Amino acid sequence: MRGKPFSAKAIFVLCIASFLAGSLFTNQNWTHPSRAKDNRIAIIPHHVTKLQEVKQDCDPKRKLVEGKPGDIMGEVHKTHEAIKSLESTMSTLEMELAVARTVQSNGQHYSLEKLANHTLQKAFVVIGINTAFSSRKRRDSLRQTWMPKGEKLKKLEKEKGIVIRFVIGHSASPGGVLDRAVDLEDAEHKDFLRLKHVEGYHELSTKTRLYFSTAVSIWDAEFYLKVDDDVHLNLGMLTSTLAKYRSKPRIYIGCMKSGPVLSQKEDKYYEPEYRKFGEDGNKYFRHATGQLYAISKDLAAYISINSPILHRYANEDVSLGSWLLGLEVEHVDERSMCCGTPPDCEWKAQAGNVCVASFDWSCSGICNSVRRMKEVHDSCGEGEGAVWNVDL
């Protein structure tokens, strides 16, 4: 070295200064990580607490267990209301789809705007009375007994939501004598529902299917009922009976039976497709007897939507039962819908058990109904004012 060498004392001082500077620098750099670590440790419990709070809020079972009795009932009520609202929305959509398909199948052409504005008439129950061209006297016997007519029929529909119509199609010769006779009768009483259907005994399954499809395209009802024109009804008892099931979806109400499958051609209710039901002597699946039955509106909408692919058996009550067999449907066996004629229904009425419907099993209706309908009505009728006292 050319310069003057450092003294030992200067070197010692420099070493001490470097050590102190290094120590100070090291302490400052290690302080920040530890502080940051402490911050992170403090943050973790906070997030854990928030997650636990969110988990509690999203766990309805825990809320119900930890909540007060009033809170629990409130949650149950809210859930019940939400389910009812969802079911109502789904049912409405099904009805709208059924209407659109029925309109299309009937050959009616609506614009989207017109179809959107097509509003259904609200009703509690639509009662379709199955009738034929030859049954004018039967229809008159009903108008003179349990079925209101004229202004009373309109009032019942408007104030109680009970719609009653005779259901009939057309003859094989449209515009002929038979059709004109029904047109004149309808002009007088205004109580028919005309179907685009050719009348015939062996076409009852088709007629039933078309009745439900047509009815849901006109009325937004809670129930749709089919009854024969030789059966006596008590409208008040019918309405109060149906009202018990209005909160339940997919209801099928009637007198349930499981009769034998008839394989002989000479039998009145011969089933040509009897082999589908197994060996000779087998019975049908459980279904409502054909004189009278009711279904809820979602089932009527289902029939309308799937109408083209629903199989028709020889007997219309069997056909309806088969359409509903594979669905989540509650079968209600309502025995008051199949009382006998006097003295059976009379004794029950005297005991306070007024029947919904009365007929004779031997005749699949009231035997000689034109002559006997008034007799049955006088003995087993509930009184004209009964239907008006039912609270819906």
UniProtKB/TrEMBL annotation:
Domain of life the protein comes from: Eukaryota
Protein localization: Golgi apparatus membrane
Gene Ontology CC: Golgi membrane
EC number(s) given by UniProt: 2.4.1.-
Alphabetic keyword roster: Glycosyltransferase, Golgi apparatus, Manganese, Membrane, Signal-anchor, Transferase, Transmembrane, Transmembrane helix
The protein's annotated pathway: Protein modification; protein glycosylation
Residue span(s) of domain DUF4094: 7-102
Pfam (any one): DUF4094
Uppermost EC category: transferase
Topology class, membrane: Single-pass type II membrane protein
One annotated GO molecular function: galactosyltransferase activity
Cofactor names: Mn(2+)
Family: Belongs to the glycosyltransferase 31 family.
This protein's name: Hexosyltransferase
